[in-house]
Amino acid sequence: MISEHIIPKASPHNDNNGRKKSFTKRYYSSSLVGKFPLKISFSKFHVTRPNRAGYNKIYEIRRSRSYFFELNDLPTNTNDIHLRIHTNDYHMKSTPIFYHNTSCTPNDKYRISCMLTHFFSSQRVLPRKVQQKFFPFIRDRLLARKDMISSRANSSRDRNTTTRTFFNFTYKRYRFYFGLYIPCCQDQKGSPFHTPSEKCQVPSPFVMSRCRRACVTHQSSFFKNEILNNVRQHGRKTK
Predict the structure, then answer these.
(1) pLDDT at 28
(2) Which of 35, 181, 37 is nearest to 97 (CA)?
(3) Domain count, the chain
(4) Is residue 66 exposed (0-12), middle (13-18) or buried (19+ Cβ within 10 Å)?
(5) What is the Cα 223 distance to its own chain's centre?
(6) If you average pLDDT over residues 191-197, what whole number do you get?
(7) Alpha-carbon gap, residue 42 to 158, rounded angstroms
(8) 183-222: buried (b, 16+ CB within 10 Å) or exposed (e) per residue?
């Protein structure tokens, strides 16, 4: 079982009809989720721009689904740890689920493992055998992608090279994009639904040096105003 190395099994109990019923992660009491309860939920995003080619394919909803794992700095002086998976899959429920955790500062590998377990338990197309086979592969790819994103975003080099925040995973006719959540953070100018000072929270498909990035909605203005000029042409390649 995918979650066995993350979540301990609870003993079964009898339901009202005398049949045995096993607990799942959704039914853990406060004594079973550890000293520092770890909540995980899905957060939905949506874009309306038609350009969904290249790295903007993460916004496609007809033939694929995207899942971006949020690894923000953990809050201090609190037992409330809430991890989010940002997705354009509106079939996923947004209700937070509690997971076993005994550390106030769980590391990236553990947090990704918990979120990946949450994804597998919520989806309905990948069979158990596929989950077991590819769990370490997807987790390790996400950890590697985090290092790539961090290296690019923290670079101060004058280059327009982009590093994608995601990678592809395909099973039969199902296509998934897994990545790390890097919000666009461009100003919501001219939007009737947001205040001028509000920052866009839609996932960005790429990052550049000096942490430059933009979602599909803001890429037009981004490439006009934030692209570095007078750099070598090969600097526009994408990893």
Answers:
(1) 38
(2) 37
(3) 1
(4) buried
(5) 25
(6) 58
(7) 36
(8) bbbbbbeeeeeeeeeeebebbbbbbbbbebbbbbbbbeeb
- Give the pLDDT score at 238: 61
The mean per-residue pLDDT over the stretch 112-135 comes to 96
Render pLDDT for 54-107 as a digit per residue (tens, 0 to 9): 999 999 998 899 999 999 888 776 677 899 999 999 999 999 999 888 888 899
Q: Residues 195, 159: contact at Cβ < 8 Å?
A: no
pLDDT at residue 77, as a whole number: 64
Enclosing domain of residue 199: 2-7+29-226
- C-alpha 120/C-alpha 85 separation (Å) is 12
C-alpha torsion angle, residues 221, 152, 210, 201 (rounded to 10): 50
pTM over 0.85, yes/no: no
Residue for token digits 């395909």?
170
DSSP assignments along the chain, one per residue: -GGGGTSPPPPPEE-TTS-EE---GGG--TTTS-SS-EEEEEEE-----S---GGGGGG--SS-EEEEE--PPPPSS-S-EEEEEEES-TTS----EEE----SS--HHHHHHHHHHHHHHH-SSS-HHHHHHHHHHHHHHHHHHHHHHHHHHT---S---BEESEEEEEETTEEEEEEE--B---B-TT-TTS-TTPBP-SBPSEE-GGG----TTTHHHHHHHSSPSS--GGGG-B-
